[in-house]
């Protein structure tokens, strides 16, 4: 087998607010893998590195990608445990190639268009008006679960936004999820727990840098599922 990689820049249609600031572009990498005898049949996988957020965002990323492509014929992807985005891209490309290079990663009813997968509508951080407009767009598009990433504006304003949505749409019409990307003092978080119709989950920061003993606040309205989170 042979492999090659390509760097690609994604331009945001609308600037995206994150805990690291406003994003207008995102760098990503694509891996292509093929057999020597049939180079026109190839698998593609994305190594979705997120600068400032990904665990493997560190010096030597492209060099590691080049090394992996040069060893793809004998590569054990388990060895890439410390380069999770590269491992994901390579394994995706290998599955695609295995299934004929038809962008068919996991054969089944979903790929054939016979079954759908319910997902939430993600609302990027922004000012109150922008977030409200985006929520309305998701609801119009048919989403019944909306997830808000908050922390860009005053938290009380964000609470008012959630209360406004809940006053217009009942719990049987829409499920609201909320995740903050900020850290708050525990005492301040506890003061918010009494908000009507809201359930809060406090999680001590186990891995954040420079948190200074602060707590991360997770909140949901009527129902919130976080099977991966230590609470």
Structural class: alpha/beta
Q: Total strand count, please? A: 8
Unreliable stretches covering 5 or more consecutive residues = 201-231
Number of helices: 5
Shape: globular
- SSE topology string: EEEHHEHEHEHEE
Strand content: 25-35%
Q: Please give the alpha-carbon distance between the first and last residues.
A: 45 Å
Strand order of the largest sheet: 4-5-6-8-7
Computed Rg: 21 Å
Main sheet: strands, sense, barrel = 5 strands, mixed
Structure description:
This protein is α/β, with parallel strands linked by helices. The chain is globular. It has helices at residues 61-70, 84-98, 128-140, 155-168, 186-192, and strands at residues 2-18, 21-35, 38-47, 121-123, 145-150, 175-184, 198-204, 215-221. Mean pLDDT is 76; it is low at 201-231.
Overview features:
alpha/beta, three-stranded antiparallel beta sheet, disordered C terminus
Write the layout of secondary structure elements.
Blueprint: E1 2-18, E2 21-35, E3 38-47, H1 61-70, H2 84-98, E4 121-123, H3 128-140, E5 145-150, H4 155-168, E6 175-184, H5 186-192, E7 198-204, E8 215-221
Parallel strand pairs: 4-5, 5-6
Antiparallel strand pairs: 1-2, 2-3, 6-8, 7-8
Compact description:
By secondary structure, this protein is of the alpha/beta class. It is built from 5 helices and 8 strands, in the order βββααβαβαβαββ.
């Amino acid at each position: 087998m042979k492999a090659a990689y390509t760097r690609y820049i994604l331009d945001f249609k609308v600037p995206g607010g994150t805990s690291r600031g406003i994003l207008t572009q995102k760098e990503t990498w694509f891996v292509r893998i093929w057999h020597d005898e049939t180079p026109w049949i190839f698998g593609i996988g994305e190594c979705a590195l997120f600068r400032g957020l990904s665990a493997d965002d560190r010096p030597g990323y492209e060099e590691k990608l080049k090394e992996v492509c040069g060893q793809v014929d004998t590569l054990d992807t388990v060895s890439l445990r410390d380069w999770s985005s590269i491992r994901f891209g390579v394994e995706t490309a290998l599955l695609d190639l295995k299934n004929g290079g038809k962008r068919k990663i996991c054969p089944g009813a979903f790929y054939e268009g016979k079954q759908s997968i319910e997902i939430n509508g993600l609302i990027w951080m922004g000012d109150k008006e922008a977030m409200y407009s985006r929520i309305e767009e998701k609801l119009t598009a048919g989403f019944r679960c909306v997830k808000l990433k908050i922390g860009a504006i005053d938290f009380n304003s964000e609470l008012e936004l959630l209360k406004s949505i809940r006053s217009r749409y009942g719990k049987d019409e829409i499920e609201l999820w909320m995740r903050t990307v900020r850290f708050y003092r525990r005492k301040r978080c506890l003061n918010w727990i009494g908000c009507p119709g809201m359930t809060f989950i406090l999680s001590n920061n186990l891995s954040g840098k420079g948190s200074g003993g602060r707590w991360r606040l997770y909140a949901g309205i009527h129902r919130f599922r976080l099977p991966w989170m230590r609470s």
